[in-house]
Structure formats: structure tokens, C-alpha cells
Amino acid sequence: MNSAATLIQQLPELSDAQFKQKYLKERQGMQALATILPQIEQRSLALRAIKLALKVNLKLGSKLAGTVKPEFQKATIKLIGNIPTSARFKIQLLALTCSDTAIPMLVKGLSHKQSAVRLHCIRALGKIGSEAAIIELARSLASEDCQVQAWAAWALGEIDSKPAVTALIEALKHEDSEVRAWAAWALGKIKPKTAVPALLKALKHEDSEVRWRAAVNCGKIGGSEVVPSLLNAMRDSNPIVRARAATALGKIGDRDAVPRLVELLHDPDYYVVSLRAAEALGQIGTETAVAGLLQALNHDDSDLRGSAVSALGEISSEVAAVAVMRSLSDPDIFVRGRAVVALGNINTAGDPSLQKMVAAGLGIALRDSESYVRWRVAAAFGQIGTEEAVADLVRLLGDETPGVRQKAVKSLGQIGSDAAILALEVALNREVADVRALAAQYLPDVKKPVKTFDSESSNSADLSGEKLPEILIASEAEATEYIIDRAAGRALKYLISIGTPGVPEPKNFHKVPNRLRRSLNDLETPVDDPDRVLPTLDDVLQMIDFALKMSARPGNLLVCCQSGISLSTATALIVGAALLGRGKEREAWSLVLAAKPQARPNRWMLELADEALGRDGKLCDFKY
Length: 624
What we know:
This protein is mostly helical. The chain has helices spanning 3-10, 16-23, 27-36, 43-56, 58-65, 70-81, 87-97, 103-109, 115-128, 131-140, 146-159, 162-171, 177-187, 192-202, 208-221, 227-233, 239-252, 258-264, 274-284, 287-296, 302-313, 318-326, 333-345, 352-365, 371-384, 387-396, 402-415, 418-427, 433-442, 476-484, 486-490, 537-550, 567-580, 585-595, 603-613; strands spanning 458-459, 471-475, 492-499, 514-519, 556-561. It is globular and about 95 Å long. The chain starts with a helix and ends in an 11-residue tail after the last helix.
């Protein structure tokens, strides 16, 4: 007789107290119970075990409820359905069962009047992830409720299994274009090995919207296996498909795409196609790509010329630099401005001749008749940060336009070298008041107060009796100002920046020694634009891990996003909750409000953090 059979025989002899002590108090006993429950043949015995487990711990009992024999699960799931608790928590418990028997209750919840309940039902179906759950999610793709549609696609992408892919491929045949769009979007979330064959097939779909979405997803996945199909897609009859295929190949960096990308620079739909082809050529950066971009500099359309200039700035070669310098005399002010930015972006490290060329080009632009171009020059000198740049910035301190003068001061502060500091000290005696005032702000005067973004923008209160970092919450623009401020920047040890996908991190962020960068959009529900990125559980887990590492080496933390209101405040709340620990959610929220009273944290990020930290909805309960 095996040990499991022996344990099962002993169960009827145990009192409730003995049962709890033996199986529900210690991890080893719980593991033993999970092993024997699927083998219990008596319905009453299985139900008794689940009832006792639910009394001890609702989550534990729910997990065990889905392990009993299938014919008993209707009764164990009913026990969970009868628990007097909130709809949200009950759905969470049903998801923990991982039982198909829970699916009808969750499907019923998809008609609930509250959108939050509908969302949690969809997520629960995704967590169950069985073929039966996938069938219901696939049906929900055609729901009349657009939110249910969106979350059903999201959940199918999260399941990441062959049955889920099969369901999505079938959905690509649906008569409703919205269903097809969501199916194509969801395929982009699934791991490459499973998704690539389906995406390659979708690139040949009769619906052009499905084709361009498939092209975007192929670009995200990358890999040589998608290149031939993307090359074919660049000859698609639909301009959006051609444009998206060009962008995808630029991301992949495939050199075989260059000849066709050069052809697309002259595409009849150049506003849609040619601009993206120019960007892709800049990313690939071969000599042939440069030659194609040089041709584009003669195009009649200024937008295309500007895109070509920006792309050349990504290619650090003398040929590219010479071409960019030619554009400094372009008749269009914005092309000239982009040429200045491109010169600032060229990597001149270890190449003295290229450094001289870039400096000469910026010297030419320094004398441009338009203040917009000169402002760009001041910004570029701040990025380059050489001693020669300091001398040119000093010249710009006397510019007739206030914005140019002020940018020159900020760039000197950004450089922060001895020569730059000396220039700022001299600027204190300038006749123009705005230069004097701004120079004083950027000088390393230890007596001046540390800069804050507004009167409530920092908080150093010890809300838990534990040492917490000072947390500052800012927009990305404000964060840049803070970092280059000599007095405030010295105290900064940690930075979490949430950036727009595809937009690089500001260059001065490297001055903060410990950084975490995530590329997200401020979304609280999926949108079917494959370029926009919904926060994920992985994003939140990285934030939590970063926060826990901070606790070992205390220091001030700056959290920023584009606006400083939603993604950054959600991140700060996650950090606070992780550091303060369970039961301190209200204190974490107070910490955020002290730093940013107008905070409106991204709700979806809080949902994910609540799940990751095991806070049973407490992180999401705050009203604002």
C-alpha cells in the first residue's frame, strides 16, 4: 500500500483540529494534501478537506479546490461561489482554482455592469488558460463590448500556447475587421517560436490592416526567418503595409533591405512610405544606405529632406557628416534645425577629424539668421560637452533671443566642467538679467537650497519608522533640469524613467549612477495600435526588484515619465509599497501624494503591482 493511500485512509479518523494541524499549518503538510486530494474517491471527504482549507486560508482553499477529481469540482467551485466577499476577490479565487468548472461563472461575469468586474473575469479566464478558457476568450473577441474585446485579445496573447495561436489564426478569418485587428495584435504578444509561422501567414492576408499589423509584429520579433516575407511586403499594393515593412526591416537592421528601401524613398505615397524608409536606412547605416539618403536630400518635400538628415545623423561617418553639413544651408528652417540635431547625435569618439567636422558645422549654424536653429545649436553643444563647445556657448550668452541665451546657460550647467563653471561665474556679471539669474541657479553653490519642482515635490518623511529614500516625481523635462542642477543633482542616487517607446533616454540621465528605464505608454486598457505599449507584469517586477535593491544602499530617488502625473506616480507608489511592506499601502499612497499632490497613478500598473506584491486589491482601492 503506497503512502498516499495510507494518508487517505487516515483522513476520516482526524478531527477538524487535527486535520488543520496536520495539513494546513505547515508547507510540508499542504504539499502532502495537494498530492492526495486528486486521489480521494469519496466526495464527502474531498469536500470536507476543501471546506477546512477555505476556513484557514481562502487562497489556499481555492487552489486546492481545483485539484480534486473533476466530478467533485462542481461542488468545490460552488463553495467558492458562496463565499461572502467582493466580486473582485471572488473572481481572483476562481482563477486560482485553474478549473474549467469555474469558467461558466466567469463568463457570466462578462456581462456585469462594472467594467472592472468584466476585466477581472477576462484575466481569470486567461489565468486558467485551458482549451475551454481559450474558446471563451476567442468568442469574446467578437463581443459588442469593446473593452471585453481588447482584454480578450490581451489574455490570449498572455496564454502563449499553440491552442491560443490556433484560436487567433481562426479569428483572422472573422467577418468583423475589428476582430481580425485584435487577433493580429494579440499574435504580436506571443513568443516568437509559436507566433512567427502565424505572422508570416498573416503577411499574406487579404485584409491590408492584418498585413501591416503582422509586419509591425515581425519587426518586434526580429530574426532572419521573417526577413524574406518583409522584403516581399515592401512591394505590397497598400502603402501602409509597405511603410510598416520598411520600419520592421530597419529595426531588424537587415542589409538586404537597403536597395528596396532606397527605391521607397521615391514612393508615390512618400508621406506614408518614404519617411519611414529614410528612418530605416538610418538604422541600417551601410554605405549603400548613405548613398540613398544623399539622394533624398534633393527631394522637393522638406519633410523627406528632414527625415533623411535625421537618419544620416544616426550614421557616424565622414560621408554622413558632410551630407548633414550641406543641409545647414537648406531653405527650410526645420530641416536646418534637424541638421543641427543630427550633428549633435553623430558619435565622434576617437575620431578627431570627425570631431572637427561636427564642430565646424555647428559653428556655421551658430550664425544662422533664425533663433530656432541657434537654440538647437545651444542644445547640441550641451550634448557634445567639449571645451570648444564651452567657448561657443559663451558666444550664445549674448544672443538677442532670450530662449537661445537661456538654453546656452543650461547647456553650460549640463557640461559642468571647470571651463563651463568659470563661464557661468563670468555670466553672473552679464548685463542681461535672465542670464545672470539662470547662471546663479546652475553654479555649485552649496549654500543655496536644493531645487524642487514645486513646493510639494519632495518628501523625506519617515512614514513607517523605517528609513525611506527621498522620492521626487517629475516630468521628463523637469527631471532633466533637476539632474543638471549641480546642487540637487549631487544628492540623486537612483532614477526610474518611464519613456515613450521608440524615444531614446535623454543623454544626461547617464549622470545618475543607478537607473532603470522602461518604455511604456500611459494606457490602462489595451489599444489595437501595435506601436503603443501597455505596461506588463515584467515591467512592474523590475520596478519592485529595483526598489528592493535600493533598500540596501539608501539614496534619493527620482521617478519621471512624460507628464509626471500617471506612470511616474504609479511607479513611485509601487516603490513605496515594496519598501514599506504589506499593510502599509495607505502610507505608500501618502508618500506619493506628498511628492505629487496632483497624482493620478496608472490603474493598470497598480493592478499588476497589487498582484505581484500580493496585496489583495489594497493598492487599487484609493479614490482620485
